[in-house]
Amino acid sequence: MAMTDAHPTGIRSWLTTVDHKRIAIMYFVVGFAFLLVAGFEGQLIRLQLAAPGRDFLDPDLYNQLFTMHGTTMVFFAGMPLVVAFFNFVVPLQIGARDVAFPRLNAFSFWVFLFGGLFLYASIPLRAMPDGGWFAYMPLTNPEYSPGPGIDFYVLSLLISGVGSIAGGLNFLVTILNMRAPGMTFMRMPLFTWMALIVSALILLAFPPFTVGLIFMLFDRSFGTHFFDAAAGADPVLWQHLFWVFGHPEVYILILPAFGIVSDVIPTYSRKILFGYPVVVFSGVLIAFLGFGVWVHHMFSVGLGPVVNAVFGGATMLIAIPTGIKIFNWIATMWGGRLRFRTAMLYAVGLVATFTIGGLSGVMHSSPPADLQQTDTYFVVAHFHYVLIGGTVFGLFCGFYYWFPKATGRMLHEGLGKAHFWLTFIALNVTFFPMHFSGLLGMPRRTYTYAEGLGLDIFNLISTIGAFVFTLSFVPLVWNLWRTWRRGEAAGHNPWDASTLEWTTASPPPHYNFAEIPTVDRRDPLLHPYIEPESRGEGDEPGGAVPRRQPDEPPEPVVMPNPSYWPLVLAAGMLLMTIGALGSLGLTLFGLFVTAVGLFAWAFEPPFGEEAH
Amino acid sequence: MSSHSAGSHPSTRLYVAVAVILAALTALEVMVFYIEALAPVLIPILLVMMAAKFALVAMFFMHLKSDGPVLTAIFAWGVFIATAIVVGLMAIFGKFGA
Amino acid sequence: MEGPTSTGIPNRKLAMWTFIGSECMLFGTLIATYMIYRGRNLVPPYPHDLLNIPFITVTTFVLLMSSLMMVLALAAVQRNDLRATKLWLGLTALFGLIFLGGQYYEFSHFVHEGLPLSRNLFSSTFFVLTGTHGAHVAGGVIWLGTLLVRTVNGKLDARHAETVEIAGLYWHFVDVVWIILFTLIYLLV
Ligand code: HEM
Ligand SMILES: [Cu+2]
Prior knowledge:
- Chain B is built from 4 helices and no strands.
- Chain B is an all-alpha fold.
- Chain C is mostly helical.
- Chain C has helices at about 10-35, 45-50, 55-80, 80-110, 120-150, 160-185.
- Chains in contact: A-B, A-C, B-C.
- Chains B and C meet through helix 1, helix 2 and helix 4 of B and helix 1, helix 3 and helix 6 of C.
């Protein structure tokens, strides 16, 4: 079935799509919506803490809000936004027409969406989880957390975790197997490299979490004793299982951002990335060491001096490859012809703010120092600097960078810069004071604080910063609206960037590349230090990759068929999940739908009838 | 690094030989288990035999021996991290003595 | 429908190995939990009261031999010897079923002896670990069953050897996990 004809656009085409670019857009829209919701929850938390002794939120609601805020941000905003970029960028960067398993890709999206909606169904049912994003046992056992709140947490993360693992599998195979001819590993763009590493991290880090969640589910629903001290078990095991996953998870969130800025900084510096192999291998090293540091989240448990020292040392080690990357980015900019477009501002902003967060991280990698800092706002400052100043800035960087490619339109630079400066100011105003309130001893996750402890002014400033965050969405939304109405056309390569995605049209045709390019160098479109202005037409440095793809494919392109079955399969799993709240009948029905979806999927021809 | 040439897969006779070794090792494991005299060294002996069976299945039945390094690396990576986590957790929980 | 891949390894085969790598962590975590809680059970019955080594040795042997059947099935389908393919695929699935029957017998025996799932720490860890493995075996039996049906219907032949190979990889991995569980749970009781 040659599908070079017009692409359908109705609602059905979205429900059945297996096109990685459309799935990327769906991930982005849903992830962004969750970002707004969780941001709103954070805003409520800050309102409560604006002054000592407020009763804007009662303690129970406060617990629910910080739990929903953290859980949503990590699993239903951060992860899907990262995966949105994987989806859109990776196949284009490696010169592929789609991912290795397009239907699995759609399935990943649908279960993620259903997992998120399931979590949020707890709000109308007035059963929001309230155990924090790490849901420590024994607080979350049926005795201390009766009611379905924690079950919403457990089940939503179980089902969306399946989607994450499927996604990791898909992108690992895609990057290993679907590269254009000539694209060796050491010619892959940095974002693709980080996507490869992160896929491996997802595959290895999610199963321990899944197992922990299953234990928790069984303890809560079937009376098992995995975390029951009275039966001889140790509730601390949950902490281990959570952080064996949890620490790699923070790298799952940050490495893609590192990959984005590693592609963006050279583009706007008119240079190639300084020390490409070092940036690659420091990423690999971070991922590897990332499995050996989890106890730094548990220093105050009292596992003993040996364990704490070993994990403290490993944590300090991991700061080295992280720091190396910072120097690579600085050296790339050094002596370059810098163009401070919005994406570049976000990239430089990341280098600055992530470094602050990295430094406070190193501070609490020392167990004795951490005992002063743990569970205080100092840690809250740390992880917001790395997660907003790192992950979110990286994602916005990528957003401004690839938006013209995805939509064919240019965003307005002035509004983009306003957006950057507002977020940059908001981040620092909100979270820098938390270093002080934290070191003064203000505990996390406590709904209020007393007057006269010297905390008032810092908290007030933090709350003001949170308002600036809310404000920062105005130029962003305005920009999107403006661009939608009358954005200029982008052309193939508006930034004069050097990687394959910029050879095809903006937005790319559904088959991505009319002709699969053959790659012969790391930066196929860029010759180091040669200004494009100084090049004449046809004066391009002689790579084998054409700077522009032909408008029409010379031969018919066979693309994967759309399919309903990923949606059906995901719906079956959702029904099972809902049933797990207490209806065996519904669970069995869900199992039936899942089985039907699976078989129909397996026997449906993925590529149209004539393909075997 | 072609890994998919059916012809290079080991023959039936090899498969049967591997299965015989596996069965023999299993029998040996159970025997060792019942021999009182071996009690002090039971754990290392059993672990070695377990690892041998593991390796035989992976190399011959799963064709890692003939299928090239990429797949072996992927599997070894998973096995390595998983083993490290198991051993690390057991150590933290004091399972290897004081 | 795939063209040549960058590594030369077919996508689905690479995916199966990647999945297996991930499953190592799943079973690793379950095994770690079992090992950490070994000897910490406070409420009877205890493992040595119940675990039946001779019985489980037999089912272990059956599962081990099913792996042999599986490779023979693969070799047969590669030669396009469909009669042998049907035979060996059927036997693999049958041996898997026998193993599952053994597990069913074992579980119900334990429950009968006063060890339901929620009894104590041993029941929790034992049933969830071996149950997860059993669920994997059951999934494998269903998969092999569909392959068998397709062969019988003439829809599976040497051109689909890769499909059989991938199912085989899964099956052997499940066998490998049992090799570990047999030693750690039963022999190191
Ligand atoms: C230079 C590298 C880093 C080091 C040395 C480091 C170290 C630490 C340490 C020791 C803690 C535990 C503090 C405590 O609870 O007492 C911590 C917490 C945390 N870190 Fe980092 N970190 C680093 C980078 C990152 C990155 C890149 C991210 C995410 C993008 C991140 C996210 C977090 C989060 C979310 C927490 C708090 C988890 C919680 O308690 O809820 N960190 N970090
Ligand atoms: Cu950490």
